[in-house]
Design brief:
This protein is about 30% helix and about 20% strand. By secondary structure, the chain is α/β, with parallel strands linked by helices. The protein contains nine helices and nine strands. It is globular. The chain folds into two domains: about 140 residues, Rossmann fold; about 90 residues, SIR2/SIRT2 'Small Domain' (2-Layer Sandwich). The chain has a six-stranded parallel sheet, sandwiched between helices. Strands 5-4-6 form a three-stranded antiparallel sheet, covered by helices on one side. The structure holds 2'-O-acetyl adenosine-5-diphosphoribose. 2'-O-acetyl adenosine-5-diphosphoribose (OAD) binds next to loops. 2'-O-acetyl adenosine-5-diphosphoribose binds next to loops.
């Protein structure tokens, strides 16, 4: 039986595909006020600003490609039972070939009605795949409500966290790539791994956690994945 490998990824895994991260120097949260474009209060204050922000991200995604780190994660499926939990709203893991990807913070290529059922029970019934199209004020869902990005805004619940926790609990190996581990509940997920499960972190910056299980591969995602795969081979 294949070992279960659970990957938690963040913005850093897509950095080498040309996407700015959020909190690094020059990152998105230096250019935009997070409370304006990524919070539920921001949405109700100025929907157009929020729609424009995600329209721009969606276009950028259309023109981007998965990098060697996304491809290496997908290729691990040959030898491991892999689940990817990503905080990223891009679809680069899927485009690289990963077959099980759980999007904790939503997906750029999807929208849903505001005030829909999702807000009550996290049900995906009303979620609509729009690909790389724009959404503007006045674009309505079948329930008559304005369409909003299918993104978990700050101030909102994270409906998929329970599923993510149960995946981490089953992990034989955990790999964390390119996340500052600043945003909860995602940042606390690794703590649900079994005590004997090794936790690898690939990040060029120092990591804000100290846990004897953690092996820090201090490198960018593409190079770090090469080192990680070498370590797996030697373990
Ligand atoms: P951050 O921007 O907070 O962190 C990015 C991490 O990637 C940092 O630790 C960097 O050191 C690292 N990094 C930078 N370049 C890298 C590279 N080439 N290879 C590997 N790592 C690299 O992004 P997240 O932790 O993903 O949520 O942010 C978490 C959440 O905060 C996001 O999902 C988003 C944001 O606000 C929402 O918008 C809901």
């Amino acid at each position: 039986m294949k070992k279960k490998l659970v990957v938690l990824s963040g913005a850093g895994v897509s950095a080498e595909s040309g996407f700015a991260t959020f909190r690094d120097t020059g990152g998105l949260w230096e250019q935009y006020n997070v409370n304006d474009v990524a919070s539920i209060e921001g949405w109700y204050r100025n929907r157009k600003l929020v729609l424009d922000f995600y329209n721009e991200r969606r276009l950028q995604l259309r023109d981007a490609s998965p990098n060697a780190a996304h491809l290496a994660i997908a290729a691990l499926e040959k030898d491991y039972d892999v689940d990817v939990i990503t905080q990223n709203v891009d679809n680069l893991h899927e485009r690289a070939g990963s077959t099980r990807v759980l999007h904790l913070h939503g997906e750029l290529t999807k929208v849903r009605p505001e005030n829909g059922e999702y807000d009550l029970d996290g049900s995906e019934k009303e979620v609509i795949d729009i690909g790389y199209e724009k959404v503007v004020l006045g674009d309505l869902a079948p329930n008559g409500c304005q369409l909003r990005p299918h993104i978990v805004f700050f101030g909102e619940a994270v409906p998929k966290i329970e599923k993510a926790i149960s995946l981490v609990q089953e992990a034989d190996i955990m790999l964390i790539v390119g996340t500052s581990l600043q945003v909860y509940p995602a940042a606390g997920l690794y703590r649900y791994a079994k005590f004997e499960t090794p936790v690898y972190i690939i990040d060029p910056a120092s990591v804000p956690v100290s846990d004897p299980r953690i092996v820090h591969i201090k490198d960018v995602a593409t190079k770090g994945m090469e080192k990680f795969i070498e370590m797996l081979g030697n373990s």
